[in-house]
Amino acid sequence: MHMNAAIDRIMQDACTSGIIPGAVVMAAHGDGVIYQGAFGKRDIGNDAAMTLDSVFWIASMTKAITATAAMQLVERGKLSLDAPIGELLPDLAAIQVLDGFDADGEPQLRPARRPITLRQLLTHTAGFCYDMMNADMGRWLQKTGTPAFRTGLHAAMRVPIMTDPGTRWEYGTNIDFVGKAVEAASGQRLDLYFREHVLDPLGMSDTAFRIGEAQRQRLVKMHRRHEDGSLAPIDFEIGQEPEFFAGGGGLYGTAPDYIKFTRMMLNKGAANGQRLLQPETVALMSENHIGDLHVTPMRSAMPTVTNDAELCPGIAKKHGLSFVINMAATPEGRSAGSLAWAGLANTYYWIDPVRDVTGVILMQVLPFADRACLQVFSDFERAIYTELNAKKVA
Question: pLDDT, tens digit, for every residue of 130-181?
Fold first, then answer.
């Protein structure tokens, strides 16, 4: 039980010292959970203790679930990785590239040189960006009166791309368009498709775009980190009646639910007595799909929302079908070729097929890539690998 004691201490110390408000952490092999713990408070403004079944906004951890849905439809021949996606999503058929602004501040647009594909959307190489990481997009939204992406309005999706498809990796709203492609190809709304084909088969009953009454009782409060390092609870909620459900970041869920999903990936598409994906599809999703391009650090254009961010800093990274892939082992012990991503409110996961281990850590702190949250994540992950290595030696 020494692993449990070591991680308990790391997590407890982070919460009691006030570095983070609270967290739920879990780790598992393909065949079962090896560690779980809930620490600190759901809300530092009151006394509700964190519990394993606490509900978090998991934000961009939604992306891998959307990618799974899309790849199910690829398997069924209803979606194609390389056909022009504009055939299915007419808004993307005549997409334009923003080529900066003229002397009067007017946006300069030109037609894209090639059509966008599903593969590019899944790898963040289609050209879409986030205004929180691209000041030009912020300027374009202001100039055109286009609603911000976070509004959940269809109009917020009518934006130009920043580079020609396939020419650069840039993190952005790409996978929200994948969600729309899933709807168009399946004839179902995204929430219903998820429920029927991903969430229910995995037993992820606490994961949804809409917060149910039972979930609201266990909802974790969002916290903001001020410049002096202090934390304060804030009111923050993803719109519960959006015009479209955001495949790139709309889900709420729990750590026990999400680890069911990551274990399905470790088990090559099977879980809970169900097969969600073929083994060769999971292998395909886990490969580099961006060729010679690289996943680059994400620079903040909105310091209240995100810090400058880089997962696995200083290590070469490629992109699979919705996952970042570290091309060398990390200092924490994660194997080369592992899969990972994160959510805006400092939620993180990784999937290491070489060591058959996956971990999830959920917190609710803005801005993203909070230094203290990243340190706690690193300490947690390192402790998991320290234990695995000790077992290997023994």
Answer: 999 999 999 999 999 999 988 999 999 999 999 999 999 999 999 999 999 9
**Active site residue: 35, 54, 60, 318, which one?**
60
CATH of the domain at 22: 3.40.710.10
Amino acid at 76: R
Residues whose CB is less than 8 angstroms from the CB of residue 259 and which lie 6 or more positions away in sequence, other chains included: 26, 27, 28, 33, 358, 360
Catalytic residue among 63, 260, 268, 317: 63
171 catalytic? Reply is yes
In a domain, 385, yes or no: yes
Inside any domain, residue 158: no
Number of neighbours of residue 326 by Cβ within 10 angstroms:
22
Domain that holds residue 10: 2-54+218-229+254-393
| Assigned domain for 159 exists | no
* Catalytic residue flag (residue 260): no
Cα–Cα distance, 353 to 286 (Å, whole number):
9
In a domain, 167, yes or no: no
pLDDT of residue 1: 41
70-109 residue pLDDT tens: 999 999 999 999 999 999 999 999 999 999 999 999 999 9
35 tagged catalytic: no
Q: What is the pTM of this model?
A: 0.98
Structural domains in the chain (count)? 1
